Amino acid sequence: MLGLMMDMPLLVSSLLRHAAANHAEVEIVSRTVEGPVHRYTYADAHRRAQRMANALTALGVQPGDRIGTIAWNGYRHYEVWFGTSGMGAVCHTMNPRLHPDQIAYLLNHAEDRYVFVDLTFLPLIEQAAPRAPALQGVVVMTDRAHMPDTTLANAICYEELLDGQGDAFEWPVFDENTASSLCYTSGTTGHPKGVLYSHRATLLHSYAIAMPSMMCLSDRESVLPVVPMFHANAWGIPYAATMTGAKQVMPGPLLDGKSLWEMLDGEKVTFSAGVPTIWHGLLAYMRENGKRLDSMQRMVIGGSAAPRSMIEALDREFGIEARHGWGMTEMSPVGAINTLKPWMLDLPEAEQPDILAKQGRPPFGVEMMIEGDDGTPQPHDGVAQGELKVRGPWVCRAYFKNEGAEAHRDGWFGTGDVATVDADGYMQIVDRKKDMIKSGGEWISSIDLEDLAMRHPDIAQAAVIGIAHPKWDERPLLLVTAAPGRNPQRNEVLQFLESKVAKWWVPDEMIVVDSFPIGGTGKILKTDLRETYRDFRFP
Ligand code: AMP
User: Fold this and answer.
1) Pocket perturbation via mutation, ligand 1, pick of 279, 304, 454, 523 by most ligand atoms within 8 A of CB
2) Cis omega (within 30 of 0) on the bond before 100?
3) Could you tell me the pTM of the whole model?
4) Residue from 275, 300, 311, 429 to probe ligand 1 pocket by mutation (most atoms less than 8 Å from CB)
5) What pLDDT digit, counting tens, does each position of 110-142 carry?
6) Candidates 41, 120, 185, 481; catalytic one
7) Which has the closest alpha carbon to 530: 539, 516, 520, 521?
8) Shortest CA distance to 86 belongs to which of 43, 61, 113, 53?
9) Is there a common fold for 12-253 and 254-369+416-432?
10) How far, in Å, from the CA of 273 to the mean position of ligand 1?
11) 417 lines ligand 1 (CB under 6 A)
12) Sequence spans of domains, the chain
């Protein structure tokens, strides 16, 4: 017997329509590429997203067509998201830190018909667009006064495109399994693979991440996603914030500690999310300048392992709850976020960080399995480790155009991460499979070593890579940057590590570097480091 509930599809357009109807006056505040801070409301955003849908229709865009974006977090990017997905087309966000060759590859692979770009990225698209024959036009996301000279044959001014359009657009109703957006994985090996999100997955993911033990979003919050809208849809935050009517703050191009602090403080932001490298910059700025963030309640740190020292510093020095999170582009992207269970709040203060340093527990909707080398499920005892496999309604079941099919088997998606899950359900990433160091037939976790090294007061950031070794196969090399005003010493740091890990885990050498190569999504590029130190030999 079927239930007698209405069969209304879950569509992205309904998020913004709801916000405009119920949170009309709530602000969306953006730092623009042109300079000034722009403010408007959900009611304004809804009107302009409808104009966008009208404009796309006038350009001849059809449902299912891909529309590219190369843009910062900002209100125009937000309008393109909702206008595109709302009318049934697919919003394809691209990472602007990619090489023009890679952008050309993505434009062609996705078969984008139009691409929307921020002023910053005009030189990039000028190089890539001529190599994408199916591309019909490039919309420069600015007004007439700021429209630059360009070599592009078919450049359109964003505000002019919207100007001629009406404010009303009847959002079409269609199957909720229709594709809404497309985001490519970072593709450190081989070509990037496309993850094609659906309206249904996007809405279910929004409900899930808004829950109290996830990001705890509501209309009482002021939310600033530092994570870019091109990195797995800013972890779904612009959708979930719209669903709940939260105030949204978009940082635009300025992501250094000072600029971020000004936006976070000025807009009384209560919740933010980003990768550890971003929070390193913010923490350094606040410490050096005696600043605090009195409104800030929670921050999610994810994308790569949050150092325990950072989680502790946010809590103890600044009174901010740091929630470690884990996810993947393939998972919309949130797979786990860490909060303590009620009984854990009574644990001695010294024991809590051990739990908080783990990547966290999955929300309802994500199931996890640890698969041993022999292919069997491993116990959730916090010890047994293996490849983390996941499934759920917002986990991708295949890549766009069916590439990389080997990751999907028996209804599970293989994450390529090695992890443990403990009896309380807390998942901990041991390492990415390809970053683990094999020494004398045993595995060493680079993440563990980095975390421990970053507890040393002289060290700001750390990265550990495996170096070929004639006897042991591979041995760990520790690369570090110095904390402000400090001068880390090899012997002293290695001794510090020796007191914390098994002797054979201690890196054979430490090198102090000025900075690390950082990838498009703000993570340290281990592939580049391995390349740089390919010929390195231990003394
Ligand atoms: P991306 O799709 O670019 O977001 O990358 C996903 C990958 O980032 C995961 O498979 C992990 O290897 C890594 N990752 C994400 N969050 C964390 C975390 N909290 N700790 C360790 N690794 C993480």
Assistant:
1) 304
2) no
3) 0.94
4) 429
5) 999 999 999 999 999 999 999 999 999 999 999
6) 185
7) 516
8) 53
9) yes
10) 14
11) yes
12) 12-253, 254-369+416-432, 436-532
User: In angstroms, rounded to a whole number, what is the distance separating the alpha carbons of residues 149 and 140?
Assistant: 11
CA of 132 to the centre of ligand 1 (A): 31
Q: Kindly write down the DSSP assignment for every residue of 297-314, as one continuous string.
A: -EEEE-SSPPPHHHHHHH
CATH superfamily of 12-253: ANL, N-terminal domain (3.40.50.12780)
Location of structure tokens 């983390």: 388
429 lines ligand 1 (CB under 6 A): yes
Ligand 1 atom closest to Cα of residue 306: 19
Assess whether 330 carries a catalytic annotation: yes
| DSSP letter, residue 367 | E
Indicate the class that CATH gives domain 254-369+416-432.
Answer: alpha beta
In the residue annotation, 438 being an active-site residue is answered as yes
Q: Is 394 among the catalytic positions?
A: no
Residues lower than pLDDT 50 in the chain: none
Which residue has tokens 């683990």? 436
* Residue from 258, 291, 438, 500 carrying the catalytic annotation: 438
DSSP string, 205-257: HHHHHHSTTTT---TT-EEEE-S-TTTHHHHTHHHHHHHHT-EEEE-TT--SH
Catalytic residue list contains 443: yes
- Choosing from 330, 389, 415, 505, the catalytic residue is 330
For residues 460 and 486, give the distance between their C-alpha atoms in angstroms, rounded to a whole number: 9
The CATH number assigned to the domain with range 436-532 reads 3.30.300.30
**Best CA proximity match to 338, nearest among 302, 378, 389:** 302
What gap in Å lies between CA 50 and CA 248, rounded to an integer?
19
Model pLDDT for residues 146-180, shown as the tens digit of each residue? 999 999 999 999 999 999 899 999 999 999 999 99
pLDDT of 188 reads 59
Which residue CA neighbors atom 15 of ligand 1 most closely? 303
